[in-house]
Amino acid sequence: MLVLEQINTPGIAQLSYLIGDSGAGTAAVIDPRPDCGVYLELAERHGLSITHAIETHIHADFLSGSRALKSRLGGEITVCVSGEEDPDYGYDVRRLRDGDRLTFGDVTLTARHTPGHTPEHLAYEVADGDDVDNPWGVFSGDSLFVGSLGRPDLLGEEETEELARKLFRTMRDYYRNLDDGVLVYPGHGAGSACGADIGDRPVTTIGREKRENEALDIDDEDAFLKFIKEGAPPVPAHYPRLKKVNLQPHDLARGPACPPLSVKAFRQRSEDGDVQLLDTRDMLAFGGGHVPGAINIGDRDELSVWAGDMLDPDRPLLLIAYDDGLIPELVTLIYRVGFTRFAGYLAGGMTAWNNSGLPLAKVRELTVKELNERRGDVQPLDVRSDGEWGSGRVPGATHFYVGEMRDGSLPDLDKDRPVACYCGSGYRASIAASLLKRGGFAEVINVPGSWGAWKKQDLPVEGGE
């Protein structure tokens, strides 16, 4: 009997799959994440032995988990990757090409070369037994999403146009020729930066995508190229790095260690100069008092994405959390985007720091109404993306996308005057505020609720429609 489980990894909106046959007792994991215990638990529940880990392509947004899964299973599985375009893998793999098949009891997977998001990308058709000419589903990886498609611009401008043209042919010559009833199991859901405006349904059909996905309805190649250039979110900084990392061996089957540190040891380690201080409490707690020099990225699912985008993987991390019991999950969220160096965490959190009488830095808050009243003496700073900025902003605001601050760049504002950071909700604004504070701005202010609250209060808007 068929076993098919979809595993959604929140924050990075990554979808992986366990597929197999309970009668044969064998299964594969498609596009596993690095914290791979979930697949072992599912396999045990269904009485399956995982024999293969399959990568649809070289991932850019998360640390591929096939090597960790192989390590957890004692090396007794085959890691399958794309052999198309001959990528230079640095570890032991089985290279599959267009038309190659894998069988798990009465389940057959057939590799299909679907380039565009990446040159080597493979999708996998799934069919019953020997009826391989009539697939009932396709694992589309990062080529076709619900209402969207994989972006072709992650390898740099010099390769974008060629990949975009390949993506056009993949949509026209492969996906549009599949039967309408074929189920599509994508590699990402809503919220991923691997595609623009991905829909929130976990599964779709070819017929539905033909009706509703504009990318499948464009017959002219140049019109297709123009279409996919519009609406793509900014490329996170960690994507090019993870492309390289995922070509190399890494064996942290249970994730990296993060030891507890006393206040004294934490402070000494923080003064070494080679570490990064990450405070994962929410913006209000961070603003009320934090260790000087810390960056604030709150403990939410999207911590993975923002840690990957804003932090340096070559510098060890010191963590601060609400509660020591949260540390394992925080480490997992950060590990998913390729961070393996943790110097430790502050045992007892900020309570221990405060009880030691050590210095605190602070970030004030203003409500949106207070910001509107003080626009004459406070410098509003919009840290949203270009598209968000263009749709409307606080009158008189300066625009500087938070992602551009990762390398130490800061907006050209008066450091001696108050700066009020805002984004969509306040989450990104708190990241920016912590960086401005560390960068020497005298008075930094965060705006809880930010643009969402501004709109709800019907305050003045500049720009937009």
TrEMBL record:
Query: Which CDD domains does the record cross-reference, listed alphabetically?
Result: POD-like_MBL-fold, RHOD
Major enzyme class: hydrolase
Instruction: Give the classification, highest ranks.
Output: Bacteria, Pseudomonadati, Planctomycetota, Planctomycetia, Planctomycetales
Q: Which GO terms describe its molecular function?
A: hydrolase activity; metal ion binding; sulfur dioxygenase activity; thiosulfate-cyanide sulfurtransferase activity
Protein name, as recorded: Putative metallo-hydrolase
Q: Which Pfam families match?
A: Lactamase_B (PF00753), Rhodanese (PF00581)
Cite the entry's keywords alphabetically.
Answer: Hydrolase, Metal-binding
InterPro entries the UniProt entry points to: Metallo-B-lactamas, Mito_Persulfide_Diox, POD-like_MBL-fold, Rhodanese-like_dom, Rhodanese-like_dom_sf, RibonucZ/Hydroxyglut_hydro, Thiosulphate_STrfase_CS
Question: What EC number(s) is this enzyme filed under?
Answer: 3.-.-.-
